[in-house]
Every structure is written in structure tokens, then in C-alpha cells.
Specification:
The protein has one domain (3-220). It has a four-stranded antiparallel sheet with strand order 1-2-8-3, with helices on both faces. It has a two-stranded antiparallel sheet with strand order 4-5. 39% of the residues lie in helices and 15% in strands. It has helices spanning 3-11, 43-50, 54-81, 107-114, 161-165, 182-185, 188-200, 207-210, 213-220, and strands spanning 15-20, 33-40, 86-88, 96-97, 102-103, 118-119, 125-126, 134-141. Helix 2 (43-50) packs antiparallel against helix 3 (54-81). With 223 residues, it is of the alpha+beta class. The structure holds iron/sulfur cluster (2 copies). Residues 122, 165-166, 168, 170-171, 186, 191, 194-195, 205-208 line the site of one iron/sulfur cluster. Residues 120-122, 126, 131, 156, 159-162, 212-214 line the site of one iron/sulfur cluster (SF4).
């Protein structure tokens, strides 16, 4: 196993993949290779959503993001010490356009291009092992890497669990492929408006994450 992957897994990340991202963020930073970091959410976090304890859920989620940020920055340092350029794409660095709810280089793009999973009907990133109960991060680098096989089409099969679980019908029946736009699979305005209203009441909505068929399988298994 490549030293970088081994190092990142030892730091506690759940899955690591490599992708060709040349040109995708060149206005921002011109590094051609992406390292996708996937960190599973603790099963406790999924149960908190079921219990509608969103305060505890977000605390748990943000703790995972902090862990991922730390790992990405340590990974950046590790690669630089090998003599290459590297840039940990942390949340604060991967600036999000709050109107469009899109970042400079979406973590999901790097993750699907690495072959670690696909975009579910819910527009969330889905892994076979943990469903969509994951947090994503990335490192960009010019270090030569052996890229994974990109996943370009949904592997959701005939499942519709997330679509049925959405309280406001924001999820479209169309399954993802990388030729579609996000609006083709989810009405992000309807989803966003509902979430904001939920926040005002001290709640939230991550039903599409917790009710994902593969998240539920992860909850039941020993991993
Ligand atoms: S977060 Fe909630 S409202 Fe938005 S798509 Fe998922 S289930 Fe629907
Ligand atoms: S619930 Fe089913 S359709 Fe929705 S993302 Fe998960 S596997 Fe795909």
C-alpha cells in the first residue's frame, strides 16, 4: 500500500482514494491530483437523528469534521515532507457559495472520481460500507498517484428509501449519473428552506442520510 494511504488510514480515516482532478480547481489552486478522505460517522450519530436529538447530532458531526480537518492537515505535511506540493482542502479553505450551496471543488466529485462511492438519489455521497453516514475531506497534490476507477453512475438500484423518507418531497425519482446536474436529482431550494425552518425550531433534517438503505445496513453490521 502506498505510504500516504497507509499513513492516512493509520490516522483514523475510514477510506482513502485517488483521483485525477486536473483543471477542476485550477483557478483556485493548480494541483492535478486529489486524495479523497472518507470518515464514517459513529453509529451513535445515526441513532441521534432517529431520536431527533439534532443538537447532539451536530455536535457529533462537527467533531468528525474537526478530526477530518486535522487528518487532512497532517496528510498535507506528510506529503510535503516527501518533497511534493500538497494542499489540505479543509472546509474553511474549500469556500462554499452559500447561495448555490456549492464549494470550489466538491468533495463528492473527488470521492466519486476516486471510485469510493457514488451520489445517491438523495444527492448525498453513498458508500457501500457506510451508506451516506460519512463526512468527506480531501487533499490536493502534485504527487504521482495511482487513480481509482471513477464511478460515473448510481449504484442505488431500485431502492427509493431516501426519496420516501424526505418529508418535503425534495428528492426526484431520477438516479444520478455524472452527466446530470444536481437540480436534476434534488430540489435544493425546497430542501434548504425546510432545513432552515427546522433549525429555527432547534431541529434539523438528515432523514435522507439516516434512512438510506446502506446507512441502515451499516447500523446493523459489526463494522
Ligand atoms: S435533508 Fe431532509 S429535506 Fe433535504 S432532501 Fe434530505 S430528507 Fe429531504
Ligand atoms: S436510500 Fe437507497 S436510493 Fe437513497 S441513496 Fe441510499 S441506496 Fe440510494
Amino acid at each position: 500500500m502506498c505510504d500516504v494511504k497507509k499513513y492516512l488510514l493509520e490516522l483514523g480515516v475510514s477510506k482513502v482514494g485517488y483521483a485525477d482532478v486536473e483543471g477542476l480547481a485550477s483557478e483556485f489552486i493548480d494541483l492535478p491530483n486529489g486524495i479523497s478522505l472518507v470518515l464514517k460517522l459513529p453509529k451513535r450519530a445515526i441513532r441521534l437523528v432517529d431520536d431527533e436529538d439534532y443538537e447532539a447530532y451536530w455536535k457529533c458531526f462537527h467533531a468528525q469534521i474537526d478530526k477530518l480537518t486535522k487528518i487532512a492537515l497532517e496528510g498535507e505535511e506528510f506529503i510535503k515532507n516527501l518533497g511534493y506540493n500538497a494542499f489540505a482542502l479543509t472546509m474553511t479553505r474549500n469556500e462554499c457559495d452559500m447561495e448555490k450551496l456549492l464549494s470550489i471543488l466538491p468533495y463528492k466529485t473527488i470521492a466519486t472520481k476516486s471510485g469510493l462511492g457514488w451520489i445517491g438519489r438523495s444527492a448525498l455521497f453513498v458508500t457501500p460500507e457506510y451508506g451516506s453516514a460519512v463526512a468527506l475531506g480531501a487533499i490536493l497534490t502534485d504527487m504521482p498517484l495511482e487513480f481509482g476507477e471513477p464511478i460515473t453512475d448510481s449504484q442505488c438500484d431500485e431502492c427509493e428509501n431516501c426519496q420516501k423518507a424526505c418529508p418535503v418531497g425534495a428528492i426526484n425519482p431520477k438516479k444520478w449519473n455524472d452527466r446530470l446536474n444536481r437540480e436534476d436529482i434534488i430540489d435544493i431550494e425546497v430542501c434548504g428552506e425546510y432545513i432552515i425552518n427546522q433549525y429555527r425550531n432547534g431541529l434539523g433534517c438528515t432523514k435522507c442520510m439516516s434512512e438510506c438503505k446502506l446507512t441502515q445496513e451499516y447500523l446493523k453490521n459489526e463494522k
